Amino acid sequence: xxxxxxxREVARIPYMESDVSxxxxxxxxxxxxxxxxxxxxxxxxxLVEVVNQRVATEMEVDPGTIVLGLVLDTVSGRSPLYxxxxxxxxxxxxxxxxxxxxxxxxxxxxxxxxxxxxFEVGTMKIFTACAVxxxxxxxxxxxxxxxxxxxxxxxxxxxLPEERALPFTxxxxxxxxKRPDLQQFVLSMLCVDHAVPIWGxxxxxxxxxxxxxxxxxxxxxxxxxxxxxEPRAYIYIADAALGTEDKLAALGDTLFISRFxxxxxxxxxxIQEAVTHETWGEGGLLAQPQPTPPRPGASYKTYESAVTxxxxxxxxxxxxxxxxxxxxxxxxxxxxxxxxxxLRAAVQGAEKQEYFCRAxxxxxxxxxxxxxxxxxxxxxxxxxxxxxxxxxxxxxTPRQVKxxxxxxxxxxxxxxxxxxxxRAEAGGFVWLTNGPQEGPLxxxxxxxxxxxxxxxxxxxxxGFLKAPLIVNSLFLKKPERIEALGLGLLxxxxxxxxxxxxxxxxVDATGPPLTGWEKKKTTRPTAFMMVTKFAGLIxxxxxxxxxxxxxxxxxxxxxxxxxxxxxxxxxxPSSMLPT
Length: 579
Hints:
Layout: E1 28-31, H1 35-45, H2 47-54, H3 63-74, H4 84-88, H5 93-97, H6 108-121, H7 123-138, E2 144-154, E3 183-192, E4 196-203, H8 209-224, E5 235-238, H9 245-251, E6 255-259, H10 265-277, E7 281-285, E8 299-309, E9 312-321, H11 326-351, H12 358-369, E10 376-388, E11 401-414, H13 416-426, E12 428-433, H14 445-453, H15 455-466, H16 479-510, E13 514-515, E14 521-522, H17 527-533, E15 538-542, E16 545-548, H18 554-563
Parallel strand pairs: 2-5, 5-6
Antiparallel strand pairs: 1-15, 2-3, 3-4, 6-12, 7-8, 8-9, 9-12, 10-11, 13-14, 15-16
């Protein structure tokens, strides 16, 4: 939780010392940091209004304001549990929540009742309404729809009476966090336009990705309909779990891009075909920001082929990275080392043998040569080993050879051509798609690569949801409240991503980069960069008047401009600002 405090001594605020009219009044200071910016984006999305339209209560604080408080608490760097009463006891509630009230109105009982009501109404109904508002306000690009899942671990005993119908089961399952000792649930997510979430849902803790793919494919048309997306007007993008025969059958006519699982023989075939033909197209550089000499970044080459699976034709796009796949190269190096160790043992054993006739030695040499592998070959020669007679030879006569024996001399050589091919194949990946090459949804080989690259943004979203400063582990025992808390997390993520998208769109449109890490300019600002720039923002309040403890810096003003927000958003309650 971000710490803040109240200052009652006017003398501690130098530029206000001369204002005698302020002297009798109490001055309150709140370290608001970036929270007014988040609140401003929540207002643009109409978050409070959307929630209040759907969740009716007679509590002192309306449900929409409670949900806004949850969102602000989520992105504030809070403790593992939602403690709104403690958090807002040190904040300016009118500035951040639009109305002034006692922090006690946000106690755990009140929040718990709101969470129960959110679940009863339907968390996804509420989130969808907010996502549609965001889509309308910021005109999200929905031509590519990304799907992925992650596991969310839960501490404590979540068992409930068996007669209760649970929305999802918290249980042990495959843990993507490497914590099989903890119970968990699985979170599914759909994202568009650079990882902006438009749908998310908790699933059973032991649900498999393959099963969830089938479920989402049967429901995706209904999910996208509120956003005005027609069938076959988008491309569904997912990981390798989609590339199985049953999932490809479930896709039907849905356009998709997926990793081609290496378990298919066709995958290895098209990689080998690409390496053999050497007719690569340029995929370019995908790194953002642009690479620098110390960090040149990876460049990509593409090659397109065709495959047939279960009687259906697909496009297979092979991508080769200049950085190559380190895991595959390490695996290749281990295989190379194992091959060398095995063959050296065979060579050493063969060299110790002696043969009475050359024919036997030649036969043994041929057998040893045949033991070559894809990585190594053995070069073998037969050498004569003369056997001298007994006794000391005379200095005047040469040593007499009594018999001739034969042995083998060997050396290990790498198959340089084979290894060069294998190393080239190690940097190859294959994407499978049925996307068109012409028309509005056309994707060339390079565009397939770029479209799939955005899948990593979904994985970054999961990192946001599970980062210690954002969520930590969930301790609640009721799955209903966990699902409702998930709504708060998804709304926070939605706002987080929209802010990031807005800043990047501003830089792309206007040109001047923003100040990023270590005062370096960046064309790809992140929401977390913005957070660090406003870390010390303090608002002073005397009765109904507010002002900053220190004026905005030039960098802070740059970020406010990129976010499309007036400076007044940090000192003026939302009820007094235009949306």
